[in-house]
Amino acid sequence: MKSKSNIVVLKTENQQAFQLDWLKWVIVSILLLAGIVGNYYYSGISVPIRLAVWLVLLLAAGFVGTKTLKGRWVVDFFRDSRMELRKVVWPTREETMQTTLVVAAMVIILAILLWGMDSVLVWAIGWLTGQRS
After folding, report:
1. What is the pLDDT of residues 11-27, one digit of tens each?
2. Which of 18, 27, 41, 115 is geometrically suited to a Cys-Cys bond with 69, CB 3.0 to 4.6 A?
């Protein structure tokens, strides 16, 4: 169990480590803005070269973004999501086919049931309003 002094130390370290997050986000914004302006300004250069530069700028912006508190949370979320996805027990092909057939059969049965109810209601409303003989 963490003591109260350890929690205070961790909070202080987090505050110091992520104190300049705003500067990191400014750098990310500048990198992305440089990519947009550069892509427009150098529109005469071939597309593969511009695409490669964009890729480098996006990777650099992503790297800087992951060094922020919010970026760290996003990275941790995706890491945890991958771990949870590995725990999923996927159905076999046979189970998938059986479930699909059951769902398809229920859809057909309900469609026929709703069609029958609609037909009865249309007939009843037509008879009540005198539009049907």
Report:
1. 665 666 667 888 898 99
2. 18
Radius of gyration of the chain (CA): 30
Residue ranges per structural domain of the chain: 4-86, 91-133
Provide DSSP, the chain: ---HHHHHHHHHHHHHHTTTHHHHHHHHHHHHHHHHHHHHHTTTS-HHHHHHHHHHHHHHHHHHHTTSHHHHHHHHHHHHHHHHHHT--PPPHHHHHHHHHHHHHHHHHHHHHHHHHHHHHHHHHHHHHTS--
Each residue's pLDDT tens digit, 46-62:
999 999 999 999 999 99
